[in-house]
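hiii so my PI (J.) wants the whole complex modelled not just the main chain, which honestly fair. so below is everything: two entries, each one labled with what it is. i double checked the lines twice but i was tired so who knows lol
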Amino acid sequence: MKLTGIGASEGVAVGPAFVPATDRPEPERDRITEDEVGAELQRFREAVETIAGNLSETADRLRTSGSGEEAGIFEFHVEMAKDPELASAVEERIGHLESPEAAVLAVGEEFAAEYAAMDDEYMAARADDVRDVTGQISAQLIGRSISAFEALKTPSVVLSYSLAPSDTARIQKGMALGFVTAEGSRTSHVSIMARSMGIPAVVGVGPKLDRVLGAQTVAVDGGEGYAIADPDADTVAEFERMSGALAEELAALDEYRHVEASTSEGRRIEVAANLGSVSEAHDALKWGAEGVGLFRTEFLFMERDDLPSEEEQYEAYSAVARAFGEKPVIIRTLDVGGDKDLPGVDQGSEENPFLGWRGIRMSLDTPELFEPQLRAILRAAANGNLKVMFPMVADIGELEAAKAILQKCRRELESEGMDVGEVETGVMIETPAAAVCAGELAEQSAFFSIGTNDLVQYTLAADRSNERLRRLQSADHPAVLALIRRTCEAASAAGIQVGVCGEAAGEPEMISKLVELGVTELSMAAPQIPRAKKVVSEL
Amino acid sequence: MAERETTVGPEEGIHGRPAARLVKAAKGFSSQVVIVKGDREVNAKSVLKITGLARKGEKITIRAEGEDAEQAVEMLAQLIAADEH
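here's the output for the full assembly
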C-alpha cells in the first residue's frame, strides 16, 4: 500500500517497520483527596524542575556540538515547562482535586488545541511541542520513562503519528533508517531533525497511517514524499538499488570528508567552507570543513529597518567561533553594493553599483557601521579562532586605514575592560588593483583570500549577471590566472597563506590549476568539500 | 506604567527560540509585563501565551507596570523588533 505525504528529508530507505508504543502517558488516577493537595502541588513543582533541567541539558549538549537550530527547539521547551500560566492552570486544577499527572495533560491539551486551530502551518506544529512537554511532565509524575524508543534495537523505518524532539533525540545513532509520520509539515521538528541527521522522512501522510501500522517492511522516498508498506519484491529491489547507489556515491566521497587533503607531492591544502549565516556552521563541520574561508556578514544587515547592534553581531560571530573551536574562521566585513538596500545608510543611487561605494570604501566612510562590527569581531575572537578580512581593497592606504581603526577599537575595548582576542587581518583579493599591488599588501597582511567571482568580473570587464557574457565568466582565463599567480607569488615571498573563496575553489577542473599556482587554501559551499578533498588528494 | 509600540521582526513571528528569549528577558524584570495585540492582552512571561500572538510585520504594544517598567518595555521592544536568523 502506498502512502503519499510531504517529502521532508531527502533520501530513500527500505527496512523493517518500527512503531513506537503509545507515546502518551496514561495516568491511573484522575482524582486526589483534599489532604493530598499540598504534597501533590509540591510533586508537580518538582517534576517541572526535573523536566526543565533535562531539557536544558539537552539544549546545552546540542549547542556545544554545533546544532544551534535543534538547541533552539529545546530552549523553547525549557520555557514551556517552566511557564507560569501552565503552572497556575495546573495548580488550580490540583486545588480542585485533580491529580497533577492528569491536570498537566489536560492543560497541555487546551494550549495544543488553541495552536492547532490557528490557520498557520507553523503554529499548528507548535501543538506538538506543548503535548511533548506536558507529556514529559506527566510521565515524570507517574514515574515512568516516556521513551518508547528504547525498544528500537535494529535499524528500522519508524512509523508514528508524530515525533517529538524528545523522541528523536533519544533514538540511537543508526537505528532510524527513515521516518513516516501522520502529522507534520516541512517545518515540524521531525523534519528539521531528519534533515540534520540525513535520514529520509515523509511526514503528513494523514490518518491512512493507521492502516499500515501492522506492516512488516516499509520503503520510504523522502525526496518524492511517499512510503510503501509491505512492498513487493521488485519494489524492495528497486529501493535497495536506489539507496545503494546514493549511499555509494556519498560513501565514495564520504571517506574524504574528514581527511586533511594533501597532493602527491605532499603539499597540504586546507579545505574550508563559505558561510552565509550562523545556522550553516553545523552542517559545514559535518561536511568536513577545516575552517571557514569566508563568513559573509551581510545576513546580519539585510531585511531589517535598523543596523544590527554590536551585541547582536557579537552573538553571531561568537556562535560561529565556538562551533569551529580552534579551526580558523575568516570574517569578511560588510560588503553591500548599491544594488542592495542597507537600512540606516544613505547609499544614494549609483549608475554602476559593482564599481560603486561598497565594501571597505563604505566601511571607511561610515564609522557607525564599521566600528561596531570590528568591536564585535574583536570581542568574539575571545571565543575562538577568528580572523578579519577586508573586501574590495584597491590600495595599501585602505588597508592601513582599516587596520588603524581596528587598532583603535581594540584599545577602546581594552580600556573598557572588555575581553578581546587575537585577530589576524587579511585582504580579499578581488580587484585587479589588489592583485597587481599584492606585494605591497602582503607586507601588511597575515593572509590573502582571492575572491575569484569579482576578480573575474573586474579583470575581464564582464558583468557577472549578464547571461550573454558566459564565455567571460570563468576564472580559467589567462589574464585572471596571471593575477592569481602574481598574488600567490607575493604571498609566498611574504610567507603568508593564500586562499581562494570564489566558485572556482569548488570546481574540480580549476582546483588543480589553483593548487599549481600556489594556493594553500580552498573555501567553498560545504557540500562540495568532500569532492574537493578527493580532487586534491589525487593531484 | 510604561508602554511602547513595536513591529514584530522575526520571519515566522513570535514562536520558538525568539519567544523563549523574549520570555527569559521578561522574567528578568520585577514589573508585570504584558503584550497587547488588538484586544488580546497576554502575560509576557508566558511562552505558551505569547507563542503565535503576532506575525512578522504586525504591530504590538508592550506594557509594563512596576519599578523597572521603563527598562522592561525598552528591552522587550528591541528584542521583538530584532530580526532572528
